[in-house]
């Protein structure tokens, strides 16, 4: 054991440890992409692979999509151009995007906390593990499916890069260089090309710019120019001629009674599915980890039995949901977990579906929010930034309540919200590290 401890100590103190870990992660990402893409989807992927041949150019395809079907103009342009080439181009680029996404996700937390190399490496591997533990549905629909990757993984990666430079500006007062600004223009355009990531990006930039202009009297003109580009890109997406046409088509195809529901009914049906089921239960591993960190912090800061008990209730709720995978039909019908069935009662014309699960789910949700406020964060800025991450996760999932494709879009609708969820959990992890010994001997 002593020899193993000495080896771990040497590894953690090696100047090239960051390079070794990055190389290891890249190879794993490449193997994941290759291993999960034996076939191409015969519908969406083939459509984009033949787009240039049919329309003459990726630009013409993008214009047709923007006018008639898909408002995500930049996504359509990039997809058509890449898919016109060999599928291996996508596989290599998608590997790079997945790798960069994980790296910048860790760098966001690093810049917020000014982490040393040892904590950064632990965080990086933890973030990689958290995405590896996502459900197979999220992986196959958001990362390893060609069309899904362009619409979820790539915007999430662009969002992470955009947020890193924003927080680096806020916390370190590090102004962007001109060349970085130029490189970031297509990045922020991609981040704001998908509705979920666009709303997150614009909101975060708005709050951060107001914060450091009002409080710190600091102003970065390039950050502000990126902010303007984000707003323009978002407006282009939301004001496309294809939006109304696609909405009408999707209502008719997937949810004929959707327009008959009031806003309140859409909220009542959407919140249990998009937030309680999708964010808390479907990501049970991450929810359990979040609550473990909360428990560690509360135990050390307050050590009150009532806090310890209540902090563990949501964890047991998630653990029982996980155990219920043995018989998923029974679990999803059980009165504590029938959130999806309750949510689809209008669609299934089953208005008598029990609602106890919704009440209990909201109770669980409020416990988590309460303790996130209750713990003593290392700084007030970090506290409210973490809460912003959790709010972004909640709202970016919840907005799907107002889409007629709420139930047919699959698990990919939770990828971008989960990214924000993971940022909040990562901040809790760093806060909990103050009470965990990570010396070389115990690493």
Account of the protein in words:
By secondary structure, the chain is mostly helical. Helix content is 75%, strand content 0%. It contains 23 helices and no strands. α12 (195-214) packs antiparallel against α22 (380-398). The radius of gyration is 22 Å and the shape is globular.
Helices, strands, pairings?
Elements lengths: L1 H12 L3 H19 L8 H6 L1 H5 L2 H11 L4 H11 L3 H27 L3 H16 L3 H7 L3 H27 L5 H14 L3 H20 L6 H18 L3 H13 L8 H19 L2 H18 L3 H19 L4 H6 L5 H5 L1 H4 L7 H19 L5 H19 L16 H18 L11
Helix pairs in contact: 2-7, 2-8, 5-6, 5-14, 7-8, 7-10, 7-23, 8-23, 10-11, 10-12, 11-13, 12-13, 12-22, 15-21, 15-22, 16-17, 16-23, 17-21, 22-23
Main sheet, how many strands, which sense, barrel?
A: none
Number of strands: 0
The protein's oligomeric status is single chain
State the helix count. 23
As a whole number of angstroms, the C-alpha radius of gyration is 22 Å
Order of helices and strands: HHHHHHHHHHHHHHHHHHHHHHH
Task: Please indicate the percent range of residues in DSSP E strands (runs of 2 or more).
Answer: under 5%
Helix percent band: over 70%
The average pLDDT value, as a whole number, equals 90
Termini separation comes to: 12 Å
Low-confidence stretches: none
Based on secondary structure, the structural category is: mainly alpha
Q: What gross morphology would you assign?
A: globular
